[in-house]
């Protein structure tokens, strides 16, 4: 009986720890519309929401360098010069 209680307690603590860790991760849900945005990293994001999600995720890691370079896909930037 003590073994069962110990095992159940272990699983309960594992579930609590997993739930606590998942609360720290930011969840970003964006629409699927395609309105391309070019980031300063040279990556085309499918829409402004996706871009803002990337900015937010980078900031949680201490990176604050991603900015919006322009509206539209990034490959157009190469043709502008």
TrEMBL record:
<dbReference type="InterPro" id="IPR036058">
    <property type="entry name" value="Kazal_dom_sf"/>
</dbReference>
<protein>
    <recommendedName>
        <fullName>Kazal-like domain-containing protein</fullName>
    </recommendedName>
</protein>
<keyword id="KW-0732">Signal</keyword>
<dbReference type="Pfam" id="PF00050">
    <property type="entry name" value="Kazal_1"/>
</dbReference>
<feature type="signal peptide">
    <location>
        <begin position="1"/>
        <end position="19"/>
    </location>
</feature>
<dbReference type="InterPro" id="IPR002350">
    <property type="entry name" value="Kazal_dom"/>
</dbReference>
<feature type="domain" description="Kazal-like">
    <location>
        <begin position="22"/>
        <end position="76"/>
    </location>
</feature>
